[in-house]
Amino acid sequence: MKKLLSLFSVSLALAVMAACSTKVDLYDDYQDIAIVYGLLDHKLDTNFIRIQKAFLGYGDATEIAQIPDSSNYSEKLDAKLIEVLTNKELPLDTITVYAKESGVFYGGGQLVYYTTEEIKPQSRYKLVVTKPDGTLVTATTGIVGGESFKISTGGSFNFSSTASKASVSWSPAANAALYEVLLSFVWEEGGQEERLKMPLGTYKTSDIVTDHGLMKLTFSPELFFNSLKTYLGSDTTNGAERTFKNKCVFISVSAGGSELATYIEANSPSTSIAQSTLDWTNVTNGYGVLSSRVNIQDSVSLSARTVQELMAKGWGFFKID
Hints:
About 15% of the residues lie in helices and about 40% in strands. By secondary structure, the protein is of the alpha+beta class. The strands form four sheets. Strands 2, 3, 6, 7, 10, 12, 13, 16, 17, 20 and 21 form an eleven-stranded mixed β-sheet that branches. A five-stranded antiparallel β-sheet has the order 5-4-8-9-19, with no helix packed on it. A three-stranded antiparallel β-sheet has the order 11-15-14, with no helix packed on it. The longest helix is centred in the first third of the chain and has 14 residues, at about 5-20. It is elongated and about 70 Å long.
């Protein structure tokens, strides 16, 4: 449902409130509202789902958010995944993770739900959570991926001055609604691995060109040398010896489900003056999103001409195999 507030409607609401009373209680009676976040990945041996609750209280919300009980249920909930086609139940157990970075919300041990059962690609799964009051929280998602989801880019990238364009190609992932593509150039410097990340962006499936059945993303080959120069800074040599192997460029393609694509679009910053927003969730009796994703990777070489130009830059790069 779209919400559209004009300056007139806001002014009118304030006038009515002022006319009725000088004391306004902004807090309604507390309601137990479940919040669910989960992205299932059939390539992982363990899948995690976060199941928490919304909070409301007097005082500074940022301070309340740091209290574990404000967003965590006090007891383990009955939660399970059900494979829709076979009706097979996958019970969800709980574990406390401590890898979360500190932020606005509580950054200590986080209770999450997980399963080590196999998630089958191209299947559908339903999450069923029973809250303490007996209310059922549910969400359903398809699983993206499949054996056909593979990177089909050739054996090398030509980022030299002779190249007019470069591209990444891959076969489509079943049930995928969006893709995120990332290139990484890896070398060794001072006995440690260095990695230059070159994001190529996130795209809806409908926005990507198809070529003979393959998804194809074209970009400027100048991205490589421009990004590398920026990464190294003004002192591009720094007296360092930088060595790279034959397959030194890593391609990462991540595919996401339709629920994730819709959720991202609904929560993206509005470009409208009216600041229209869309309340969207695929969680029944709750908020959040249950969807799926999968990532594939491959490594390729730099073309011979690209290697020559890189080594001729005087940045200390040498190929070792």
